[in-house]
Amino acid sequence: MANVLATFAQFERRLISQRTQDALAIKRSQGVRLGRPVTLPARVAHRIRREREKGMTFAAIADGLKRDHVPTAQGGKRWYPATVRAVPLRLA
Question: For residue 12, what are the domain limits?
Fold first, then answer.
């Protein structure tokens, strides 16, 4: 009996996963932006783009933001090169 219940539970998990993926694909095709909203101030994004265009590395930009006590998009104090790299280099 336990094996039968476990099998159906696993089957239901797969169905839920598939329905979720299908719904997200539909939303993306409709142009809905999924995920956390962008909260990085435009001036910080502009600074990152400007410094990147000057040829600075992501690590150097992150160090400069930390040194100048610029808060991250979520209010943190520490900038990482990967975080800087995630900022789009072109305006959408």
Answer: 1-35
